[in-house]
Amino acid sequence: MTDLDLAHAAMDAAPDDDVARLRFYERLADTELFMLLGEEAAGDQVTPELFEIEDQRFALIFDREARLAQFVGRAAPYAGVPGRDLVKMLTGQGVGLALNLEVAPSAMLIPAEAVDWLMQTLSHGPEAAEARLTEISPPAGLPEAVVTGLDRKLAIAAGRARFAYLAAATYDNGAQGHILAFVDAAPGAEDALASAAGEALTFSGIEAGVMDVLFVRASDPMAAHLAKVGLRFDLPEPVTPQAPTAPGTDPNTPPKLR
C-alpha cells in the first residue's frame, strides 16, 4: 500500500476524526501525482482529461504511474505533478479530483470545493515577528502530532538545509512559544522551509499554537546553544534527479493548465 492508501484507510476508519482527514489531505499535497491528459503537452502547457461524474467535472489522478496505466489500459499522455502544484493549477476551475479510481483502496472523488479548501489551507504563509528572543530552552508541551508532523515534512525537504532544531522560546514581551531553527539553509529555500513548518502545525489539527522559524549558520553561537537544548531533525541529502519521463515530472518546472 502507498502512503495515500494508508492515509485514506485511516480517514475512512474514523470519519469523524478531523486529524485523520487533515493528514490525508496533507499526504495528497505532498505526493507526486500523475494526471491523465486529453492531449500531448505543449511545452509546459497541459490539458487535463476531464470527466463528468454526478454532474461534476473531475481530473483523473493516480499516485503511481502503474495505476494510471492499469486504469487506462493503453498508451496515454499524462503529467507528473506534485499534489500542491496540481491543487494550485485547478483551484477556482470548478474541477475536482478523481483519485485512483478502480485501481486502489484509496479510490475516491474529491470535489472542487475540497480542492479550493486545500489551496486556501496551503496558502497560509508565515508572518514576520517583531519580538526579540530572550531565552531558548528544551521543547516542552508540544503535542506529539506536531513533532511527528515536522518529521514528515522535513523528511521531504531534502537538500534545503542540513538539519533543524526545535526548542522552546521566551520573548522580551513575555510571550512564550516554540522555534524551529534551520541550520545552513540553502539559498532561496527559506520560504519553502517556513511554509513546511507552518503546514506541520496546520495539518496536525492544533487549533492554536505558536512556532516561529529561524535560520542560523552552523558557526553561529546560537547554533551551538540549540545543539544542547533543542530536538534535532536531520534533513535528507538531496537526490540527483533522473531525466523526466513525462511532462510535469521536473519539480522545477511544473506544468500550467490550458
From TrEMBL:
InterPro entries: SseB_N. Residues 9-116 form the SseB protein N-terminal domain. Pfam families: SseB. Residues 236-258 are annotated as: Disordered. This is SseB family protein. It comes from Yoonia rhodophyticola.
